[in-house]
């Protein structure tokens, strides 16, 4: 797959284009190994410098990068024996939220998450990760099953928000999101949510109200998209950058506000630059967090989760 460069990565793209050009010339005009090595070092230094100082709008672009690992990639990289469970037993199956039973490092778990898709066809199939009510009702069904059999729940959050279409509203979108959020908050089994890309609005929190909330380094988590906030505040979606800068949607701000519990480092250049390394990082952190939660009783799990969410927004 060809590299997809973001706007702020143009200087890096220019250097890598020169590297490609010299590699092509090497086949006809002699060796340019020294020049290529120098440009590669320069590109790597520039990438490190750029990604060490991303502002919230830049992180928003990285969080939305089309080559960033998605739910299906995490399932393939971290889980074995995955069995997808479909349907909400009321209306149908929603493909924006996928989930089922699996083994994580040998132990059985329930795993679910938003899936955006990687190309035009899969994006349409998964509705760009924007779930309808049946997606959240499927999530509740899976959490009920996890409770019944004493299985930890691992969720992967990556959505711009719940689908706002007429049919979704007619079938009770708000109620479905509320029920899913409530079920997250009442689980007596270990639950860990990981924001891997966008964590947008109620569509995200419906499966993210977990005992531990983790966030990849260049992901975002917000009550509304920057474009939506700009439209409300200034009636100008083009001011999304201004909104992103003001909203405190990145990991360090959210960690300080105690909205999330931990930031997972990404490879230099973002998770899309080295998906395998990013997925491995997530797996190692999940294993640590699960080990800590596995020592707690159901009542302790519920109390710790309640204390965690009650603490958000408290002063002093």
UniProtKB/TrEMBL annotation:
EC code(s) of this entry: 2.1.3.15
Pathway: Lipid metabolism; malonyl-CoA biosynthesis; malonyl-CoA from acetyl-CoA: step 1/1
One Pfam family here: ACCA
GO molecular function annotation: acetyl-CoA carboxylase activity; ATP binding; carboxyl- or carbamoyltransferase activity
Location (main, coarse): cytoplasm
Key words, A-Z: ATP-binding, Cytoplasm, Fatty acid biosynthesis, Fatty acid metabolism, Ligase, Lipid biosynthesis, Lipid metabolism, Nucleotide-binding, Transferase
Residue stretches spanning the membrane: none
Subcellular localization: Cytoplasm
GO biological process, one term: fatty acid biosynthetic process
InterPro entries named among the record's database cross-references: Acetyl_CoA_COase_a_su, ClpP/crotonase-like_dom_sf, COA_CT_C
The reaction(s) this protein catalyses: N(6)-carboxybiotinyl-L-lysyl-[protein] + acetyl-CoA = N(6)-biotinyl-L-lysyl-[protein] + malonyl-CoA
Subunit structure: Acetyl-CoA carboxylase is a heterohexamer composed of biotin carboxyl carrier protein (AccB), biotin carboxylase (AccC) and two subunits each of ACCase subunit alpha (AccA) and ACCase subunit beta (AccD).
Family: Belongs to the AccA family.
Protein's UniProt name: Acetyl-coenzyme A carboxylase carboxyl transferase subunit alpha
Organism expressing this protein natively: Brevundimonas alba
